Amino acid sequence: MSEQPKGKVIIVVAPSGSGKTTIARMLLEEMDKVRFSVSATTRPARPGEKHGVDYFFLSEEEFDRKINDGGFLEWEYYNGKRYGTLRSEVDKLMEMGYFPLLDIEVKGALNVKRMYGSQSLAVFIQPPSLEELERRLAGRGTEDEQTLASRLKLARKEMQYADRFDHTVVNDELEEAFQQVKQIVELFIADKP
Ligand code: ADP
Ligand code: 5GP
User: Fold this and answer.
1) Ligand 2 centre distance from Cα of residue 154 (Å)
2) Which of 100, 143, 157, 187 could form a disulfide with 148 if both were Cys (CB 3.0 to 4.6 A apart)?
């Protein structure tokens, strides 16, 4: 990519079920300079998820149009659905003086890191074990049996990417993991520009 990005971005990356959304929400609640960058996806909304808050839920056609319009900073397939970081979200948050927080999968995270280099921070949230990850995913109750199985298969692969990111935090005890992530993010933000 030849573009010269401005500003800094924070990425939380993890296999599905590790707890990255939980940790990201805690960060957003405590850090007023950090704001969630709402992605677009073609997967259906889960109960309770809101359009424009959790994701922009797009049809395949709408997603294609966004790609053609150059609307994505990056986008990837995950478990048969498409997910993409919207340039409009990241730009809007930066213009407002916030640090965008991206909750994205490993390939997208590597691409954003390639674009932003030292202007990006990627924290990999690791589950204590694959067994615990399976328990958490099943316990969340959002996936049917087939999606659960394919997410677990993907998780095994994604775990191998941990050392490609800036920091790894094991999410065993939630509060402890959150404090570690918060400290890492605070240091990154304080380090100007
Ligand atoms: P992800 O965004 O990585 O897919 P979630 O944040 O949705 O994962 O977490 C998956 C499930 O695990 C949720 O039900 C969440 O409440 C639970 N969870 C998250 N962190 C912990 C933890 N440290 N210990 C036990 N359960 C956790
Ligand atoms: P979920 O369906 O559980 O919400 O998300 C599935 C995976 O897609 C998660 O790893 C999540 O972080 C990732 N994801 C969400 N938004 C984006 C995005 O904009 N780009 C990429 N590459 N991945 C995303």
Assistant:
1) 12
2) 143
Q: Tell me the per-residue pLDDT of 70-90, one tens digit each, with 9 for 90 and over.
A: 999 999 999 999 999 999 999
Q: Which tokens in the block code for residue 65?
A: 């149009």
Query: DSSP readout, 75-123?
Result: EEEETTEEEEEEHHHHHHHHHTT-EEEEE--HHHHHHHHHHHGGGEEEE
Question: In the chain, which ranges are E strands?
Answer: 9-13, 34-36, 39-41, 55-57, 72-78, 81-86, 99-103, 120-126, 167-170
Residue 25 scores a pLDDT above 70: yes
Q: Chain-wide mean pLDDT for the chain?
A: 94
Smallest CA-to-CA distance from 111 within 13, 6, 7 is with: 13
Going from the Cα of 41 to the center of ligand 1, the distance in angstroms, rounded, reads 21
Amino acid in position 64: D
108 lines ligand 2 (CB under 6 A): yes
Q: Is the model's pLDDT at 6 over the cut of 80?
A: no
